[in-house]
User: What shape does this take?
Amino acid sequence: MSPTRSTWLKYGGFVGSVGSARVVGVLLTAITFPIIVRRLGVEMYGVWSYVIALLSFLDLLANPGLTSHAQQQVAARRAAAAEVVSDVLVLRAFLSVFVIGLIFVLAAFEVRSDAARLLRFYGISILLINLTGTEYLLSSLELFHVRSLLSVTQQALYTVGIVLTVHSPKDYMWVPASILISALPTNLCGWIFVYRERPAASARTAHPALVAFACAKWTLCIGYLHVLALSPHRPSGRKVVLGGTCSRLIRRGYTNSGFRA
Assistant: This one.
């Protein structure tokens, strides 16, 4: 087989795999979204959406661009993949512990008991899921078929969990539980494939560039969260503009980072 034909087949398989996974994901979302809204009710679904929005911003503190940096480095230097990944995991673990403490502090000031309970449980769950996730590594290692298969499997398990467990607003805790139960096994399977592809690891301390990278992102993330904290429920137009400005600065910091050794 000629190199040109092999390249076309490779990219064709990539487009087919990723595209099929996206289509299946959209179909599964179209199934689960109406079920969640109808069975949880408008009020409880609003609480769930508030918790998701708050934790999405707190995740910026637990992962201030470290996975993006690791994805670039693993794709460029596979021989050093074990060192980069180990450094990133250690830094993210320490940051996740700090964010968990911050979540419990925020939950203590939450007026609604159901929102506080969701904040604590889903906060810890999503940090654990994100910490053990392997999508960025599977992409760097060009394991696109494995990534697509695991993504579809996770979404299918989540859909089954929602259909079987969520029947009324009282079952709101089963929504994050379904996410946790479906994501952890697929993350474990992802690490099995990553382990098969990685070179031998070498023990060493965290690279100073990664620490400086995380600190730089933290300053931007903290400013972004400070703007949102002024009015977490109904931000004014000026606060929305400030939040969008901080968001653009964060995204710009990801792409213009100087740590591309």
Q: What stands out?
A: Residues 173 and 256 are 40 Å apart (CA to CA). Residues 3-62 form the longest helix (60 residues). The mean pLDDT is 77. The chain has one domain: 3-255.
